[in-house]
Amino acid sequence: MSESELMGDEVLDGTWSDESEWEEFTGAEPAEDSGTAAPQPVLAVVGRPNVGKSTLVNRILGRREAVVQDVPGVTRDRVSYTAQWAGKGFTLMDTGGWDPAADELYAAVTAQSAYAMEHADAILFVVDAITGATATDEAAARILRRAKTPVLVVANKVDDDRRVADTADLWSLGLGQPYPVSALHGRGSGDLLDAALAALPETPRESLGRGAGPRRVALLGKPNVGKSSLLNKLSGEQRSVVHEVAGTTVDPVDSLIELDGQTWRFVDTAGLRKRVNFAAGAEYYASLRTKAAIESAEVTIVLLDASEPVSEQDLRVLSMVVESGRALVFALNKWDLMHDDRRRELERELDRGLRRIPWAQRVNISALTGRSVAKLAPALRTALESWDTRVPTGALNSWLGELIAATPPPVRGGKQPKVLFATQAQTRPPTFVLFTTGFLEASYRRFVERKLREKFGFTGTPVRISVRVREKRKKK
Ligand code: GDP
Ligand code: GDP
Asked: Which residue's CA lies nearest to atom 18 of ligand 2?
């Protein structure tokens, strides 16, 4: 089939079913929801501890995901959720991350507010209406008054009408009208969301700023795999400590590290540096942390402990990364402990466990000795290049035409599905849509992916292929 035939009016002039069939191998929602494409406006929730931020987040989400923590001083990571109100989708960012070790509550408030001002499209500033504005609230308000993003003051814990009058005092924060709300009972939360959504712009700022600044890297892996050791090694090896990048506020929970002549932003590293230990619910927090870090990152380094059997927990982290669509570099740490027997065993485990990600680069490192850590930066660069790659439609279709002529899709129910046309709908990760006359089996889609990779590369990034079946035209 020639390209002109593939693109001809005759072929495209049909009815396409709108619902594309997203692959079971991603197990994910369409890319619109993955956080990498068509970014949604971000609504951030800030405020000092105990004003009811988590309760409000739970209220908005309508579920108990954000978990109210009754243990004082527990650090809750910054977590983003996909939310909806009145048919409009947005990302709700819970900037909970309080550092129990921070001597200065002011400093924490400042950092948190600054982060929200940098990354969010609108901010909910939560204040406890029963207590009234404290000195810390006022410090936060001073920062927030400088925000270019809209800020709404949430006067929380207004559980009944009698308390509404008290909220008038909160005008003094200089951020406009306080919205009386009971996060606990739901009172006033609808009006608040109406106002918040009206304040959110159509085009989120992250989509504008994307690509600017240092590339964002997440260090991931189960506890004790060597994440903080690697972070220390990498920051120790850099020639100069970077404090600032022109035009961007550095999130206090991130680390800027120069590797191989390039500055990288290692996201959500505050916990790694401080080695925070969570007594109860450690696993739960580890998984929340992983989720948050993946969401903030463009590329991930997944660490495995080469001296231990590959575990379920390792594979879970890997599949979270693949599902998120982030680029991936795979590091086998503690290579200094390697010996021949273990090595043979390890290769067998990897063959079994990593069958589905043959495209990931692998680096054998030792965070302890520094062995091969210099190979990480080039691998990150390769993975990001693949993640950003766009194949022009013309080149894609002429290649695909030849591939399909040589190896057509298998016949199904007596019919041979035709692939009419393909396009790369998105980058980050590369996402392809095949327009067809019939369903393509998973094995054939995997075949197309394999060939696509042989031809165009994509080392280090997941690739998504979706199939859009053209509905038959009814005969008159
Ligand atoms: P955060 O530290 O700001 O996230 O605060 P939490 O959401 O953990 O809430 C702190 C405490 O305030 C918890 O005991 C909540 O149950 C309580 N709380 C939160 N919202 C309300 C509310 O609207 N009314 C009342 N009475 N209590 C609330
Ligand atoms: P994290 O929980 O993933 O941050 O892991 P840590 O960095 O705290 O490391 C856990 C343990 O593994 C510590 O005792 C480290 O000294 C040790 N460790 C980390 N990297 C290496 C390595 O490359 N080789 C060896 N032999 N031990 C390591």
From this structure: 226
Atom of ligand 1 at shortest range from CA of 159: 24
| Alpha-carbon distance values, 32 to 55, 88, 225, 377 (Å) | 28, 14, 33, 29
The torsion angle over the Cα atoms of residues 224, 227, 228 and 234, rounded to 10 degrees, is 150
Give the Cβ contact number of residue 299 at 10 Å. Answer: 24
163 CB within 6 A, ligand 1: no
- CA pair distance 238, 235, nearest whole angstrom: 5
- Does residue 401 line the site of ligand 1, with CB under 6 A? no
Q: Which of 411-415, 428-432, 439-443 has the lowest mean pLDDT?
A: 411-415
pLDDT tens sequence across 209-242: 444 578 999 999 988 899 989 998 998 855 444 4
Compute, in angstroms, the gap from residue 262 CA to the centroid of ligand 2. 25
Which residue's alpha carbon is nearest to atom 11 within ligand 2? Answer: 224
Cβ count near 168 (within 10 Å): 13
Distance (Å, whole) CA 246 – CA 220: 28
> Cβ < 6 Å from ligand 2: which residues?
221, 223-229, 272, 333-334, 336-337, 366-368
Architecture of domain 3-29+390-469: 2-Layer Sandwich (3.30)
- Which CATH code is given to the segment(s) 215-386? 3.40.50.300
Protein residue with least CA distance to atom 27, ligand 2? 334
Q: Among all ligands shown, which has an atom nearest to the Cα of 233?
A: 2
Q: How many residues does the chain have?
A: 476
Which CATH architecture best describes the domain 42-199?
3-Layer(aba) Sandwich (3.40)
Give which of 377, 277, 359 is closest to 318, Cα–Cα.
359
Is it true that 42-199 and 215-386 share their CATH fold? Answer: yes
One DSSP character per residue, 6-61 reads HH-HHHHSSEE-SS-B--TTT----GGGSSSSSPPPEEEEE-STTSSHHHHHHHHH
Stated pTM of the model: 0.58
| Residue 400 pLDDT level (bands cut at 50, 70, 90) | very high
Scanning 36-172, the segments in alpha helix (DSSP H) are 53-61, 105-119, 135-144
Per-residue pLDDT tens over the stretch 231-281: 989 988 554 444 444 444 455 578 888 888 888 999 888 767 654 554 445
Shortest-distance atom of ligand 1 to CA 58: 7
How far, in Å, CA of 187 to CA of 264, rounded? 44
Residue with tokens 């409009």: 88
In the chain, what are the domain boundaries?
A: 3-29+390-469, 42-199, 215-386
